[in-house]
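Figure 3 (text version): structure tokens given as input.
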């Protein structure tokens, strides 16, 4: 792996003489108290400002402050009024713009494109405080306020839209957000390394236009610089018969001429030298040209091909620059940033965070803060590579871990400073709970690897799966004075956990509060292979260990499995199989997650193209079944909530159409009853259904069941301990 300049090695900017701000200022009055006449950098965010290392703007702001810069925050400004973007005046260096911790469209809309009623990152959860496509809108208002100040885009919305991408909400392929927002630079990933270099270079007098070589950034340029070698992406991974069909009677010279004509550039596109292979010495000056925006917009197969190339060039150890034409402009992606070292991670997370919301919010409750105020991040990144997830595309698959000492210091900080702390650390984790300090056994192999996942289809033999450092951390954390309990709320990768039974024992006996959430996502081989998730056998092995160690500790504990409905590769038969499995195992899903095609995800490429980018994409390559229609999506969700009487009319119709009417009835092995309780039932369109009941039968009133109790033979609520409530179960403790 290449090396990079350490974050704390820069000479601090002269403004460091002003010292550390209690909170990064959000008003002129706060700037006056600090003695500032101006900000060097202003960060614009769609989230409320919470000075906590789980909030991106707090991290970036404090990291830049640690470099000596004066940083201001414009939190949720009025996007319809350019004056609100002048609240802190003109920054000396640049504006940093982000939608916040979530993509603004994911934040506002459900997977069925319904508007959400709340926003967890806004005071009191009020919805509508940020615009759709926040990065674009904020950048436009910023340009109106200060047209000559450089704009740097970042955060997850910009990161996942850095290239031509399928947009689920408009159902079309959109350009790179860099162009739509008219930004000067886009930083992708967590971006501490990029923003520090950009800030220091601008402070040294460089122009924003000259900063075009920073890893982890995206720029727009008119032409490929001299000295670079271009590689045609279709030569690396040919996306099917793009050339004319082969004429078996043609002479070889004629065939070559036809292929050459088909590969000719479009009018106005610069003619470049394409090569198939590049000598190692030239790799640093080679760039892969992907199909132009206009071509991937109009051709879903080319879109899937481009997605495959993008994910193949994601390892910082071997990734090359990528370029994609948009009209008369090239969008140029520099290789991913070098991951942070442990010392750098410690430095980032030990900035002087107040760990509470900005005082201007008063007593308003920020739901996202309430969830994480007693949690501690121990690592970044994920090598799982789940196709529906954006963690790998954003944070990378190289695990970046903090030191044990640094984590312990933060736990003590939470204990001593955070209001309302009762002795329980709510989470000690990251994107995945149990990847702390896991890495490739050989750095050379890691630098050369192009696998999208280290654990699919099985755990790579080169992966170090030793959980001993994590076990040591857990034991030290719970032994701290004043700490009563350390819970693990981050997702446990159970196919990794079974590699270390000692870890499962530690987890089950000391760090679970009765329920542990895990995510099999599916049980059928079809959807699992498209998700890059392990088979159900790994779940059974983990459950066996978890139950065994829970019983040894004298604890009654349950696993709560999460599943995704309507994921690419999922058929109606797959969902039926899952519904029967859920009933057999006594699970009743309280909430159902339907697949949401987020920008840049591999599963989104499947959704859009019907092709599988996990393998070579051709016009005749594997076709992926995609449950797109709203009716089918509702059906798949209904299978997950087979116990909800409102879903029974839709399920009965589907079962009959599938030739499985034998599953309709009150028998133990049947899925849903034949009767319909009064006042229940929805049509396939989601409207209220007018049901009928058997003569003399009373409407069924369901009660809440906790996970693990078997269902009744007659299709009614399971026997056991209940408390009144709507049909649910997973995630609630039984009444005592």
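Below: residues designed for each position.
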């Amino acid at each position: 792996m290449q090396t990079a300049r350490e974050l704390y090695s820069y000479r601090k900017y002269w403004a460091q003489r002003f010292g550390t701000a209690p909170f990064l200022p959000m008003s002129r009055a706060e700037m006056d108290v600090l003695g500032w006449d101006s900000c060097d950098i202003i960060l614009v965010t769609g989230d409320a400002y919470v000075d906590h290392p789980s909030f991106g703007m707090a991290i970036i702001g404090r990291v830049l402050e640690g470099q000596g810069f004066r940083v201001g925050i414009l939190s949720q400004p009025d996007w319809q009024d350019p004056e609100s973007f002048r609240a802190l005046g003109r920054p000396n260096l640049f504006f940093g713009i982000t939608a916040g911790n979530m993509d603004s469209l994911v934040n506002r809309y459900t997977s069925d494109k319904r508007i959400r009623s709340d926003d967890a990152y806004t005071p009191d959860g009020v919805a509508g405080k940020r615009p759709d496509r926040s990065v674009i809108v904020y950048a436009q208002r910023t340009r109106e306020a200060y047209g000559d100040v450089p704009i740097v885009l970042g955060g997850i919305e910009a990161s996942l839209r850095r290239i031509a991408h399928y947009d689920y909400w408009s159902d079309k392929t959109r350009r790179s957000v860099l162009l739509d927002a008219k930004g000067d630079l886009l930083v992708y990933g967590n971006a501490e390394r990029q923003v520090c270099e950009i800030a220091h270079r601008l402070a040294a007098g460089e122009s924003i236009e000259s900063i075009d070589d920073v890893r982890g950034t995206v720029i727009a340029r008119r032409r490929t610089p001299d000295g670079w070698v271009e590689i045609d992406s279709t030569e690396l991974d040919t996306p099917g018969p793009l050339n004319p069909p082969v004429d078996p009677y043609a002479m070889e010279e004629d065939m070559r001429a036809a292929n050459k004509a088909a590969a000719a550039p479009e009018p106005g596109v610069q003619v470049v030298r394409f090569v198939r292979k590049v000598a190692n010495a030239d790799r640093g000056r080679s760039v892969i040209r992907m199909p132009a925006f206009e071509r991937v917009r109009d051709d879903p197969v080319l879109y899937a091909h481009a997605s495959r190339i993008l994910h193949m060039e994601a390892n910082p150890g071997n990734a090359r620059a990528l370029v994609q034409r948009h009209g008369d402009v090239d969008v140029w992606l520099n290789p991913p940033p070098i991951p942070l070292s442990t010392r750098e991670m410690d430095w980032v997370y030990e900035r002087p965070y107040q760990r509470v919301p900005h005082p201007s919010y008063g007593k308003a409750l920020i739901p996202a803060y309430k969830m994480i105020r007693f949690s501690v991040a121990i690592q970044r990144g994920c090598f799982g590579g789940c196709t529906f997830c954006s963690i790998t595309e954003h944070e990378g698959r190289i695990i970046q871990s903090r030191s044990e000492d640094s984590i312990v210091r933060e736990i003590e900080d939470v204990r001593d400073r955070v209001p309302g702390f009762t002795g329980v650390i709510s989470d000690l984790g990251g994107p995945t709970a149990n990847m702390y300090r896991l890495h490739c056994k050989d750095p050379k192999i890691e630098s050369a690897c192009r696998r999208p996942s280290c654990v699919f289809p099985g755990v790579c033999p080169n992966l170090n799966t030793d959980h001993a450092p994590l076990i040591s951390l857990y034991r030290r954390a719970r032994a701290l004075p004043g700490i009563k309990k350390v819970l693990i709320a981050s997702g446990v990768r159970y196919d990794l956990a079974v590699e270390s039974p000692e870890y499962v024992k530690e987890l089950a006996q000391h760090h679970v509060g009765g329920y542990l959430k895990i995510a099999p996502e599916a049980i059928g081989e079809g959807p699992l292979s498209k998700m890059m998730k392990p088979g159900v056998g790994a779940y059974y092995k983990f459950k066996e260990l978890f139950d065994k160690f829970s019983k040894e500790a004298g604890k009654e504990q349950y696993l709560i499995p999460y599943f995704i409905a309507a994921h690419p590769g999922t058929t109606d038969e797959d969902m039926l199989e899952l519904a029967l499995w859920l009933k057999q195992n006594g699970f009743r899903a309280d909430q159902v997650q339907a697949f949401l095609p987020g920008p840049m995800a591999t599963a989104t490429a499947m959704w859009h193209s019907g092709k599988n980018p996990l393998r070579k994409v051709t016009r005749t390559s594997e076709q992926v079944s995609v449950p797109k229609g709203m009716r089918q999506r509702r059906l798949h969700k209904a299978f997950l909530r087979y116990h909800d009487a409102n879903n029974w009319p839709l399920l009965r119709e589907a079962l009959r159409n599938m030739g499985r009417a034998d599953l309709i009835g009150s028998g133990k092995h049947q899925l849903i009853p034949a009767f319909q309780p009064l006042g229940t039932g929805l049509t396939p369109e989601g409207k209220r259904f007018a049901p009928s009941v058997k003569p003399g039968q009373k409407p069924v009133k369901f009660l809440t069941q906790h996970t693990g109790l078997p269902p009744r033979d007659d299709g009614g609520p399971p026997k056991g301990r209940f408390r009144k409530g709507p049909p649910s179960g997973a995630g609630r403790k039984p009444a005592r």
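Residues 374-642 form a domain with the pyruvate-formate lyase- activating enzyme fold (CATH 3.80.30.20).
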